[in-house]
Amino acid sequence: MINAAGREIPDQIIRDTGKEVFSGAYDNLGREIKKFSSKSRSVQIRKGAQPESKLLSSLDEVIDRIGLKDGMTVSFHHHMRNGDEVVNQVMEAIARKGIRNIHVAASGLFRCHEPLVQMIEDGVIRKITVSTISPGPLAKAITNGKLKELAVFMSHGGRPRAIESGELHIDVAFISAPCCDVQGNMNGVCGKSACGVLSYAYVDAEYADQVVAVTDNLVEFPACPIEISQEKVDYVVQVERIGNPEGISFGPTKPTTDPENLKIADMTAQLLDETGYIKEGMSMQTGAGGTSIAVAAAVGNIMREKKITGSFASGGITSYFVEMLKEGLFKGLLDVQCFDSVAIESRRENPKHMAMSASQYANPNTKGCLVNQLDIMILGATEIDVNFNVNVVTGSNGVILSSSGGNNDCAAGAKIAVVVTNLIKRGMCVLRDAVTTVVTPGETVDVLVCEYGIAVNPGRKDLMEKLKNTSLPVMDIREIKKLGDRDAVKVMNPEFTDKIVGIVEYRDGTIIDVVRKPVQEF
Amino acid sequence: MINAAGREIPDQIIRDTGKEVFSGAYDNLGREIKKFSSKSRSVQIRKGAQPESKLLSSLDEVIDRIGLKDGMTVSFHHHMRNGDEVVNQVMEAIARKGIRNIHVAASGLFRCHEPLVQMIEDGVIRKITVSTISPGPLAKAITNGKLKELAVFMSHGGRPRAIESGELHIDVAFISAPCCDVQGNMNGVCGKSACGVLSYAYVDAEYADQVVAVTDNLVEFPACPIEISQEKVDYVVQVERIGNPEGISFGPTKPTTDPENLKIADMTAQLLDETGYIKEGMSMQTGAGGTSIAVAAAVGNIMREKKITGSFASGGITSYFVEMLKEGLFKGLLDVQCFDSVAIESRRENPKHMAMSASQYANPNTKGCLVNQLDIMILGATEIDVNFNVNVVTGSNGVILSSSGGNNDCAAGAKIAVVVTNLIKRGMCVLRDAVTTVVTPGETVDVLVCEYGIAVNPGRKDLMEKLKNTSLPVMDIREIKKLGDRDAVKVMNPEFTDKIVGIVEYRDGTIIDVVRKPVQEF
Predict the structure, then answer these.
(1) What is the pTM for the complete model shown?
(2) Which of B76, B105, B129 minimizes the C-alpha distance to B504?
(3) Which of A476, B149, B259, B261 is most buried, by the most CB atoms less than 10 A from its CB?
(4) Using CB atoms and an 8 Å cut-off, which of residues 75-134 of chain B contact chain A?
């Protein structure tokens, strides 16, 4: 059937997954929610005796002790990003035991997780559920349909929603802990592999049947500060290294110096100013790219000029927002993911740099998550279409490049969600009649800013009105598309097979789109 | 039937409550636990629109909006202790609305809550569940059988266990918030009514159907640091005052100067030293009384002398433990309750002074709570008996004086649990053939230290052995009783009616004893 984003979702997929299809960005809200009845276990103690130690000697022992077996779902968090070494170590230990058909439910997977490709081929991994994924061999393997089961792309808010509701049931959560004690109290700010916050793992610790802390920094009790606490942790295991913190930060973490991108950033800041969003008490979130940071920089300049103090910046935190906090441009940072070492240090040292859970950040089934309070959201996109639908999962050639991240969460919540992108990338126009994959529905996306000009979602007549008498180059989105199509040197119209390799869940758990295997092999 | 603590639990009570009877301190451990499937609600948002405000104008509006009605269970936390003004304000608002038959499930109630007595008489309150209660009019009213239903006395660890399991279902949690923002992010450390931690309320915020933050200090978003976060909070209401922080600290908070009590304290410290519990990495918890603090002081002296560094001190935290932390005698404090302004300030300023949830502290149905790691626990008692059973709920005259607190939690977990008390109190010997009410089973209590000497639980032959060649006056507990009985100027053998006014739950939720209405009216 055709869903509310205009995408064909085959009946077979609906039947197989048991999921509903997307029916509108704000359609499944305002409801009473029952949370999943999770498991715990009471520890046997005896007077005068030490309770059984949680500290096991190896991942092999962990796997034996927890009874990890064929078909189970294991989860991971991704705060070590491309430096993570826990996913590979755990999965290799599982593979060595001859265990098969594992469902890997990771908040994120990166290029460093290439060894999973072979495990997919070998039948060790049958399914992947993920909210962030890097381009690379693993993403290509999924694109090529190597997984036995559908990959599931969830948003950062959709993941805790799915776990809390029981839709995504985790048998064993492996939590990388840069600092941990023998009881399983842990934090992300101390130790050689400090990654800042452990936010995405909080929900795993709460709802997984069994929870294992994997650490390379076993400290004396009590680990301080306690970020995830002992009563949720079954076992602790020490490994030589949980990862390389240098892999946390990659890509640009400074404002762009490219003149075209700077122009886009400046236009965006002016747009936000003219529409009244740069105001006392404002809040803001951007991604970590060079243009996004340049937008933050340009907004910061206007804030300084007008002596405006914002409320908070949120999401993945870069050094740039740390500096803005220090300068007093924001009153607080709400952090689900530290993007660089400056952010990690700030989280450790500055009480105004606060951790938040993924639920607090973006879970739509809560009594109010943070994205609902966002004024300004700067969105990335691999493609956008004339209906303002945004794609971040696939490229125009159909290959998987990323996952939903917080894109559709923040777009839904923010007062103004602005897609900031070059119109022409690698010779192609990324503004299309229809995106290859819909991740963020157009009804939640307010503005497109690119080097050719600005397009405002026709649903936002209020913004149109405010921009009427400004110098900003506001155009119809179709006019911008014409210019892009004119100047593009390459047109990509990939052919797809009938094979569906993954589903994209909207944050509420409905299917907003499917990912088809392209004819071309990647 | 007779339970494992030797107490007669009438069949009618077992049938009416549907509970099991106490079968041994370590009997219901080592089991798999299913947690209660709690409720949430998804907030309706719309693009560009502010979500509906959580901030309501009055408690009356709160009560209307949440649909609070006859028979419901409302919960409170007790960190403002005898300075609390939220319980009375909320219950008065409920009474004004004509709502009846409320179950008040408070982590603690104090003398300041005397107005509840009239509400019991008026039928506004039908039942009270409590973990801490002060002597006074309310405790007397319960003793006199004024409640329509049985009062339930739970331990600090039993309460989160009962809430997590669904045995204690809370319709509405009212959380006193010394610092709160309009979204419901809150903490206990800032504001004119700062009380330190909000530990006992965490489980209420997690499991209550509806959660209301009651604050006298509404701060700009985001409240910093966030202790309980917004996605768990339905409504926020501002009142003039949530309480008087001067009521937090009462009774002695310094070491006793009474020579007899100092002697008890010194004997206790020597006992702990001779039995090897004062050692590198040790942990310790005491109550807030003058003798308890004197024990901490005496232990501190031995630690200094022997250059011993402990691991942690826990529980309700007084200035005395704050000083020990500062001095480096402990590596950290794990706090469920600040007992004075010095502790509150320490929690605000010192990262090593950490908050813990009641579950992390003492919930037996978790993957390992802190009391399991306690080396030394100094227990209070209103009575103890020759089988080492401890009473903290009733006096020897049958009147309710307190509730379980952490007494049976810590006794069960600690390597050595020592009851420290004067043998003769108000002319009576508090060492009896059988305590009036069993709260903490004798099998978990290791030693009694009083001014007449020391009695070791016969189950602890290892301790006996270690004390054999010391100067400490170790005696059979029955010998000590003889001395006490000889010197007592008063004997109390109160008569009880058949009416049962309350049950004492062991930390695992089984009935360890019942509280009967005395013939004498209080």
Answers:
(1) 0.97
(2) B129
(3) B261
(4) none
- The count of residues in chain A is 522
Q: Alpha-carbon distance B460 to A147, whole Å?
A: 59
Q: What is the pLDDT of residue A88?
A: 98
A368–B contact, CB cutoff 8 A: yes
A356 vs B: CB within 8 A: yes
**pLDDT per residue over A453-471, tens digit each?**
999 999 999 999 999 999 9
Which tokens hold the place of B184?
């419901």
Give the model confidence (pLDDT) of A303-340 as tens digits. Answer: 999 999 999 999 999 999 999 999 999 999 999 999 99
Q: Do B39 and A54 touch (CB under 8 A)?
A: no
Helix, strand, coil shares of chain B as percentages rounded to 5?
30, 25, 45
Whether residues B231 and A184 touch (CB distance < 8 A) is answered with no
Examine the pLDDT at B286 and tell me if it is beyond 90.
Answer: yes
ipTM above 0.95, yes or no: yes
Q: pLDDT (tens digit, 9 = 90+) per residue, A1-39?
A: 999 999 999 999 999 999 999 999 999 999 999 999 999
pLDDT at residue A51 above 90? no
Per-residue pLDDT at A282 = 98
pLDDT digits (tens, 9 = 90+) for A476-504: 999 999 999 999 999 888 999 999 999 99
Q: Residues near B265 by Cβ (< 8 Å), separated by ≥ 6?
A: B255, B256, B291, B294, B295, B297, B298, B420
Residues in B touching A412 (Cβ below 8 Å): 45, 47
Which residues of chain B lie closer than 8 angstroms to A312, CB-CB? 221-222
Chain B residue with minimal CA distance to A457?
Answer: B47
Rounded to 5 degrees, φ, ψ at A83 are -100, 0
Joined together, the tokens standing for residue B104 give 């008040």
Residue showing tokens 């809040």? A283
**pLDDT at residue B15 tops 80:** yes
Minimum distance, in Å, between the CA of residue B492 and any CA atom of chain A: 32
How far lies B469's CA from each of A74, A311, B302, B472, in Å?
Answer: 56, 67, 20, 8
Residue A250's pLDDT band (boundaries 50, 70, 90)? confident
Inter-CA distances, A459 with A310, A421, A444, A447, A473, Å: 27, 21, 9, 10, 18
β-pairing verdict for B383-385 and B390-391: antiparallel
- The widest CA-to-CA distance across chain A, in whole angstroms, is 80
B4-42 burial code (b ≥16 CB/10 A, e <16): bbebebeeebbeebebbbbeebbebbeeebebbebebbb
Continuous segment of H or E residues that includes residue A101:
none
Write the single-letter amino acid at B216: D
Q: Which pair of structure tokens corresponds to residue B115?
A: 């107005």
Q: How far apart are CA A213 and CA A41, in angstroms?
A: 16
From the list B36, B211, B356, which residue is nearest A37 (CB)?
A: B36
Task: Give the per-residue pLDDT at B251.
Answer: 75
Beta strands in A131-234 (DSSP E): 151-153, 172-177, 179-180, 186-187, 210-215
Distance from the A120 Cα atom to the nearest Cα atom in chain B, whole angstroms: 33
| Distance from C-alpha of B360 to C-alpha of B374, rounded to nearest angstrom | 13
B4: distance to nearest CA of chain A, Å? 16
Residue B72's identity, in one-letter code, is M
Q: Per the structure block, which two tokens stand in for A478?
A: 């179709």
* A413/B45 touch (CB, cutoff 8 Å), yes or no: yes
Name the residue in chain B with its Cα closest to that of A377. Answer: B48
Contact status, residue B216 vs residue B240, Cβ threshold 8 Å: yes
